[in-house]
Each structure stands twice: as structure tokens, then as C-alpha cells.
Design a protein that fits this description.
It is built from eight helices and eight strands; from the N terminus they run ααβαβαββαβαβααββ. It is of the alpha/beta class. It has a single domain, classed as Rossmann fold, CATH 3.40.50. The chain binds S-adenosylmethionine. The site of S-adenosylmethionine has 18 residues, from helix 1.
Amino acid sequence: MTEREQLFDAWADRYDAHVAQEKGFPFEGYEAVVSEIVSRVSVTAGERVLDLGVGTGALAERFEQSGCELWGLDFSNEMLVRARAKCPTGRFLKCDLLGEWPNSLPLGFDAIVSGYVFHEFNTEAKIRILRRALRCLNPNRAIIIGDIAFSSSSEREEARRRWKKEWDEDEFYWAWDEIEPRLNDLGCSGTYTKLSACGGVIELRRTIE
Ligand SMILES: C[S@@+](CC[C@H](N)C(=O)[O-])C[C@H]1O[C@@H](n2cnc3c(N)ncnc32)[C@H](O)[C@@H]1O
């Protein structure tokens, strides 16, 4: 097991209470970000939703209530135990998003969502995972990502100075001006919406069928 998996396993028990506090960096605006993801996804009963880095199911459970076919991927067993308890009809698979995705994961998702996960990955890894995710997405559908994110690298630098103590130098917080120029090559268009001093939502739509 990697150090990162161990870290998330150990956090699983306290995770929901931790994000609920929402104080300062990095979870300021967590509820606004998660609610915004949900409000942008309109799936009806039977449609397929995939949550990347599903964690304890804090985001995923809001989709289960719509009667959709809910899938989630995560590499932490302890997080997955909690997601399964929260969302009994969900299908949750252990998977490192940076590696091979399970063969049992179907194609044809009507929405792909992710909350507070992509900051684990540097820009090239983000692009690789997005490319993989876009292959699973139905035409005219969107990937909606909520995360620690900034409109530009200079805004991120300001935030880094502001939250010197809390900032994790091993993480890769989004700067939209670094990602937007890569979207054409990825075959999608996108928007970034700022929702708090350190959180926002990225929406990506396929432009190539
Ligand atoms: C901060 S939690 C977010 C949980 C949930 N999505 C939410 O909105 O609250 C990050 C999650 O991403 C998972 N994760 C981090 N790196 C991963 C990777 N390389 N592959 C799969 N899951 C990963 C962690 O195990 C953890 O459950």
C-alpha cells in the first residue's frame, strides 16, 4: 500500500466531520462547491453517474437519491467502506486513478463528477485522467469537478502566501490559466467558476464525438 493510500485510510473516519467545519484553507466553501456540482448535473433515474475519488460518498450520496446508476472509484479501502454504507445501491471499485481503470467499469456515463481529488495530481496527470474519463462519457454530457482551484497561477500564488502554514507543497491546486489552453487538444471546452477564496467548479464538455 502506498503512503498516500495509508494517509486516506487513516483520514476516512474523521473525513466528513473535517470538511463540515469549512474553516479556512483548504475546505472553505466545501458545501457550496459540492452543491454546485450537484446542481449542474441533471440525471434521471437509470442514467449512469461516475464519481472519481468517491471518498466516503459525501458527494455521491446526493446522486443516489435521484435513482441513477451510481459508480465510484477510489484507492482507499477505508473510504470505500464508508461510501458503500452511505450509498447501498452504488457500485464502488478500488482503483488508483493514475493506473489502469477496472475492466468492469462500463462506458456510457451520463455524468462524471469529482470532489476535492484532482489536486492530488500534477497537470500532466490531470490531463491523462481527464482523457481517460472523457472516453467513458456519453456525447453532449459533462465532467464536473469541484476542487481547491484558482482562476490563475498568480491568484494561486497569492493564496499560497496567505495560507503559508496550511499549504501543502506536495499537492497541485488548479490554476485555470494552466488548464484552459490544454482543452482543445483534449477535445473539450470548459469553464471555471470561483465559489470561495480557495474553491471552485470546473465544467468540461466534449467537443469531439
Ligand atoms: C479529499 S477526499 C474527497 C472525497 C469526496 N470526493 C468528497 O467530495 O468529499 C479525496 C479522495 O480521493 C482519493 N484519492 C486520492 N488519490 C487517489 C488516486 N490516485 N486514485 C484513487 N483515489 C484517490 C482518496 O482516497 C480520497 O477518498
